[in-house]
Structure formats: structure tokens, C-alpha cells
Amino acid sequence: MACTTILVGRKASYDGSTMIARNDDSGSGHFTPKKFVVVPPQEHPAVYRSVLSHVEVELPDNPMRMTAMPNAVEGKGIWAAGGVNEAGVGMTATETITSNPRVLGADPLVEYIPAKDGQPEVPGGIGEEDIVYLVLPYIHTAREGVLRLGKLLEKYGTYEMNGIAFQDVHEIWWLETIGGHHWIAKRVPDDAYVVMPNQLGIDQFDLEDALGAKKNHLCSADLDDFIENNHLDLSWNGVLNPRDAFGSHDDSDHVYNTPRAWFMLRYLNPHSKKWDGPNADYTPRSDDLPWCMVPEKKITPEDVKYVLSSHYQGTLYDPYGSSQSDQKGAFRSIGINRNDFMALIQMRPDQPEDSRVLEWIAFASNAFNVMVPFYANVTTTPAYLSNTTGAVSTDNFYWNSRMIAAMADAAYSKSVFHIERYQLAAASAGHANINTYDAKLRREQDASARAALRAELGVQEGEILFGHVGRFCEQKNHAGLLRIFAGVSRRMPNARLVLIGTGELVDSTRALAQELNLSDRVIFAGVRKDMAALYHAMDVFLLPSLFEGLPVVLVEAQAAGLPCFVADTVDPGAAFAGNIHYLPLQNEAAWADSIAAADLTRDPNAQAKAIAAGFDVHTSAGILQKFYLEQTQKYTKEVQP
């Protein structure tokens, strides 16, 4: 089945996400209605039987819930196409790819043979219809997905050549089948992206790693013997190029496949290579286009949508363009009227696990449709995504998108501006919704985590938790802290104090707490590793140190939004939030008065203020990098003769 795939490593994306995306296209002359659904564990059978090949596969126990994009009309199989399971692993399958006679002669495809003339049928191997259902419900990492599918291919074989992507929040793997039973898989470099038309794509493979350490390459167990026995390695330098060894270089590739890869690479790396003209490094017909590249700028979901919607815009090949060249429409476009859907799976490392994964969904022709986001960790999908049937209807997203595409395609020049405004509005609303609900979900999860941690500390509902973080030593002034808190507790009977840290004065501090009748109000929490959660559990932060430079704990407390009461002996350069109060150590009684009169509300914008003040890892890393570069340059000049 005709498709186009793009894979984006986490360091190549705009927000640290891993992203995998694929168009699924119908064959010529028809559409395949699709729907977006959730498949619960109980719907997975103990034994799977393929509709097309009749192969039967016994499945493991305890399948997981998964999302899927199956065919909406029953017929030749399920064709789940891709999705995300409840372990947060994504998969898209498949990208139909090509091979050559040498491979297919050495390891023939495993094709179904119907019963005939009294002979029983012979089941075929597994294929695109089956792969997602056989693999996705049972894997917990991308690598695990590669290994499970690899074992299935070796045991049952396949009746077609396919490429399959696996993804988790840390990495992406791309697997390509070779003949009936062999396969290779390569980890996508974190700082790179991969583009895949319908052609075997991997252009460099470390067989030693695949059969040894298995760090970035995996393969079928006997691949080295298979290559050697069938003389498949065509390289002069001993570096295996799978595209040469196992792939195709037909004339049809230069119309159907290589031009698509060329345009995507050209769009994402416009200045890295020369793509046009008589002296171009690569042309639409180049067989040696890179499998992966480091992009010139970080890649966004909108970049992914654009390349998967493209039709050679800005070139003389654009079928919708104004060029009078005989090359107009010469190559197969990516965004065509036969697109059934596009799905982009985005795994965001900076979000809570329950809401980390987004699936951006688009139906019908990508040149005219819109991409909208949905959380993947769900038990059901909206009816307008899941109620697609074979009947044309305005009640679902698929047929609405199909009708818009049909009208726009017939009048492209008059429609394109309206379509672009529609796409901009939908994408903007999608990001706004995600931002809104990310914040709501985070607040709900934060509130639940805060309540659980406060309960662990023994803090009752309605109590105000004051906090301090620091080594129990003279500098931190725990004795003064307890005297200040004693005054606070007389004014605020619901006040509690948590002390985090250890040191030589722990025992004397405990004794003083008992002497001041504070034993039931002061919590000695010891050394903790969950400081972010503890700041969130606190209501107020106290820092009555005898002296400090730039106290990191004060920066952290402010960034958490806590109202902070700090000794006037602390450097005022540490202040960046509006809810910090500097008080004299010589007048401990004044602390209780100030605290009682103050607004103890958290600052909801504290994190943004911290970043604006330069207290974030990216700014700090930049400062350090600049310092070391300057020192290196200075040293180099000094030692040069």
C-alpha cells in the first residue's frame, strides 16, 4: 500500500519529543474509509487468524489497551495501521517497500496458497493487515517491539516487503523486512530525522553491532550468513549498504519514490545541499538520497504535516502549479486525493506520563485537510472519529474531510487561500486546546500528588506547612528558625514546619523543638530526593540563615511559587519573584508579625519569572558554554607561537 513516513529524533524536534508520522494511501481508483478507535484488552483473541493469509498466531496473555486506525468497512482484514498502547509505546505499520530478484530468489515471500484439487490450503505469512495487532498490545519499549516483530517474521514469514516504525519517549527504531523471513532494524539518531517513501531506505548498517552489542542496530539471527551465501553485499569498502544489497533501483522508483524523499529532504535542509539545477548534489531521481539528516532547524508538528501534504510546491513538478513545463506532474506527490489518513504520534518528555502522548489525526487528502490532536492514553475516542462507515455523512471527521478535499481539488487556485486559513485556524485551536488541558491535567495531578505527600508527612487538611531546606549547621540558624516558628505558631495554630536535611546539629535542634513545645508541630524529614514534590507540598518557605551567597534552595522555592521569608543577611540578588520578604534577624518577633499579615498565596507565574531571570538549565548551559569557549580561545591565542 502506498504510504510516506517521517521519523523525528528527540533532539531534532522542537520540544524534545520523539515523533513518528505516516500517510496511509488507498490504491488507484478508490478510497478506504478509516476510523480512530480504542481497542480494549478483551478484544484481543488468544489465537489470531489473518483474513488475507489465513496464518494463525498464538498470542501472549495480558494484552494492553491500544489506539488504532482500522478500516471502517469490513472486508479484507483489520489493517490497524498504527497507534499507541497503554505502556506509552507507539507504532506505525506499514510502509510498503521494494526489494530485488536476488533477495526474493534467496528468501521467497511466504504467500497464501488456496486449497485446490483436493490439496489443503497453505497459510501465508504475516503482513500489513496483521502486524499492529500482533505486536503493539504486547510491548513496553520501542526496542522490544522490534524484537517481537523480528521473532514473528523469522517464525511465520511475510508475504510482502514492509517498513515499520516503533517509538517510545526515548527513542525510535525503523525495521525493514528482507525477503520472506529476514529483517534489519536501525535506531534513528536522536539529532536526526528520517524520510521514507515506498522503497527500502536504510543506507548504512553496522552488522557487527547488530549481531554483537545491539546498541543501534538489530537484525535476524542468520543475516550475515544469508548475505554471504547469496553474495548480497555490493559494497567495495565492506560497509553494508542495505539499500544496494536488499532494495531496488528501478525506473519506476525515480517517478514514484525518490522524488518524494528528495522533496522532504530539500524542505527540511534547504541549504545543506544543492537540490536544484545542473550541478545539484541530489535530484528527484537520485538513488543515493540520505536515509537520515540533521535538520537545519528543529522540526515541529506543522513541519511534519507540511511535508506529508506536499506536492512539490515551489518547483516545476507541482501538478497544481502554474508552470508550463512538460515536467509538471512528472512525479508522484505525497499529498494526493488518495490519502486516507495521516497520523503523527508525539511523545513529550516534559509532560506527566498519563498525558505525555498525543496523536495528531488528519483524514482524506493531506493537501486540503487539517490535523487535530488527541490524548492517546484514553479508553474511548469521540464519536465523530470512531463512527465512520462506508456511507458518506457529515456526522464524522473522515467524510467531512473527504468532501472538503473533493471540492478544493476541483478548484485549487480559488480554494488554496481558504484552505490555508482553515488549516491555520484548526492547528492554532489544536495547540490552544492542548495547552489548556495540559495545564488542567497538571493541576489535577499536582493536587493529587501534593495531598499524598502531605499525608505521608502527617500534615492534616487545613494545616499550613512551612518549610526549610538546609544542612543542620550553625550557618543555617535552625535555633533561630525554631524561635521564629514558635512565634508564628502562637498566631497560627494550624501551622506545621518541615525540616529537610541532616547534619551535626540535628539532635540539638530536636531538643530545642521539645523545649519550645513544638515536637508535635515540627517534622524532621531527613535527606530527600523528591525536592520538587516537597516544595509543591509546602505553603511557605523560611530561610533565616546567618549568611548566604546565592542560596539555590531559595531559587527553587521561588520557582515553585512559594511565599518566601528570608533573613536580610541573604544576598538580595537571589530575589526574582514578587512574593519574597527580607526580614531582620535581630528582630525575630517581627517575622511572626510579617508572616501573619502577608498574602500566602502561591505565585502561578513563578516558573516563567525564574526563566526570565536566567534561572533555567538552557540559559545556564549557554553561559557556561560561552565562558569555556572564550577561555579556550584565550588559551589558544596565548600558546600559539
Write the layout of secondary structure elements.
Elements: E1 3-8, E2 18-25, E3 37-39, E4 47-49, E5 56-58, E6 66-68, E7 82-84, E8 90-96, H1 101-106, H2 131-135, H3 142-156, E9 162-167, E10 172-178, E11 182-187, E12 193-196, H4 207-211, E13 217-219, H5 223-229, H6 242-246, H7 253-256, H8 258-268, E14 292-293, H9 301-307, E15 339-347, E16 357-363, E17 372-375, H10 383-386, H11 397-410, H12 412-457, E18 464-469, H13 478-491, E19 495-500, H14 506-515, E20 522-526, H15 531-537, E21 540-543, H16 552-559, E22 564-567, E23 580-583, H17 588-597, H18 606-612, H19 617-639
Parallel strand pairs: 18-19, 18-21, 19-20, 21-22, 22-23
Antiparallel strand pairs: 1-2, 1-12, 2-15, 3-6, 4-5, 7-8, 8-9, 9-10, 10-11, 11-13, 12-14, 15-16, 16-17
In short:
Helix 11 (397-410) runs antiparallel to helix 12 and helix 13 crosses helix 17. The strands form five sheets. The chain has a seven-stranded antiparallel beta sheet. A six-stranded antiparallel beta sheet has the order 7-8-9-10-11-13. Helix content is 32%, strand content 18%.
Helix fraction?
25-40%
Q: Count every helix, treating DSSP H or I runs of 4 or more residues as helices.
A: 19
| Biggest β-sheet description | 7 strands, antiparallel
- Strand content bin: 15-25%
Shape: elongated
Mean pLDDT score, rounded? Answer: 94
- Order of strands side by side in the largest beta sheet? 14-12-1-2-15-16-17
Seen as an oligomer or otherwise, the chain set is single chain
Overall structural class, as computed from helix and strand content, comes to: alpha+beta
Q: What value does the Rg take, in angstroms?
A: 31 Å
- Give the end-to-end Cα distance, rounded to a whole number of Å: 65 Å
The count of β-strands is 23
**Low-pLDDT segments, ≥5 res:** none
